[in-house]
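Researcher: Here's a chain I'd like modeled. Treat it as a single chain, no partners, no ligands.
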Amino acid sequence: MAAYGFPCADAEMDAEPVSVCAGAAHAVYLRLRPLYAVLPGVAAIFDFAGGRVWMLPAYHCWDSHCRSRGMVQWLDCRTIKFLCRRCAAFPFCREVVKLAATRLIALHKNKGKSVAACLKSRTDYAQNPDKTQQGELVSSYECSPLTVDEEFMISKRQYELMTGRRQKSDVIAYQIRQSFKPGEITAEEANKVGYKLAMRFTKGKHAFIVATHTDRQHIHNHIIYNSTALDSTRKFRDFLLSGLAVQRLSDLICLEHQLSVIEIKPYRERQKRTLYPLKESNRDKLCAVIDGILLNEKPASFEVFLQKLERQGYEAKRGKHTAVKGKGQKRFIRFRTLGTGYGEDEIKAVLEGKAKHQPYQKQPPKEQPFQLLVDIQGKMAEGKSVGYKKWATKFNLKEMSKTLLFLQEQKIGSAEELRERAAAATECYHAMGDSIKAAEARLTEIAVLKTHIINYAKTRPVYDAYRKSGYSKKFLEAHREEITLHKAAKAAFDEAGLQKLPKVKALDAEFAELLTKKKAAYPDYRKARNEMQELMKAQKNVEMFFAEEKVPKDKAQTR
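Model: Modeled as a single isolated chain. Structure tokens:
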């Protein structure tokens, strides 16, 4: 066995049971190998009742519940159930905290109002004395809070004079809203954080004001910066995903000040303030109506089935391909286009009792199982902050746990087995790729050869006449294109070493066969590619993790 392994469903591989108390596995004793710990301060505990390996952070293992004697860990089943309610199935603690939120907003010119009036109304609202403690929580850069709107307008006029260009869009300025967790920060510190965010984001090239509002339960900043640069030669370009860039920058600054940040979650896992009903397409509605008729009403024939659809408000068009159209729809929908189980023949089979109708259920998209670990030491050498290190450590914990879950699903129990599987998957992927490339090369060769054969046949009478004329220059000038094509085809045949030209029909048959095999090989090729990528990613994560684990041990030995 290799020097280390991975937790899996086989208890004998990863943990050696020392003793089990009487009565439904009330307590489980495990002798764990030191390298089985996923991260420093994380204990690997095997649940015999549930058949899983639980990764519990050290701060969850209180002395009153978990005692450690050397390499022996003790945890009762009640504690496991309690901790599982607070932890995900494998890796990490689910802590939901309301944290700092940031948003970038483009300020547009209102209809019927001048640019100056719009700027004044926006800046006056941000500097409202009732919200900013009589203006004490307002700071600025390269402008005065009292005359910020006029100074913005002056830079815009200078821009027109210096460049000769007039503003095409109606964006007059930009606003950044930055909110903080209630009770975590003071108003003065929030203003400093907002000032630092504006300075870093604009790089000191745009004038701005920072107004901190305290009229709500949560302290928040209104940062308004001019769309025109200080030198009046250019304007701020609202690039793609600029709002996300502001959020990431705000998170880094908050981490530097030891403030909370919002944990990035997949889109489908985010909690929305307003829940709207899911939109149903016309095809989804039709499928739901068909499900109700086939499962509940059970019509005797297909004609009766169409009549029931008409009673539901649908217009039926009978013919070679039966189609229906609902109220407000412009086009008819054929049954065969609704998917598996909704075709005309499939519905008739259900009505005749030959098949059973299964309503179609949409499957949610499968998320990426894990990502590559962050090289924390390399990032810190580049000058990253302590806050970034904390985030990267938590990120690596989650992704390494997901990686171990993947290895458990693939039944990989050691690093050596992982390397072998990754090498085999890579070899299989390259072999399939070489096969597809060879087929593509042959397809190209067949297409070129076919073109030469056709050109050779078409131009042969002209070339024979050219040869009989004694290679006359006058004849050559009159038929230069045909003679050139004939010579090119002959040169291609000589280069390929063809003694006898193949038939065009045979080439067409070979082309069609190769094309069919190529299309059939693509699904397996994509599957092999995905398998190789996942295994290579898992191998890199494991190597990076154990490399980081080895460094502290080496330092301890030198001491």
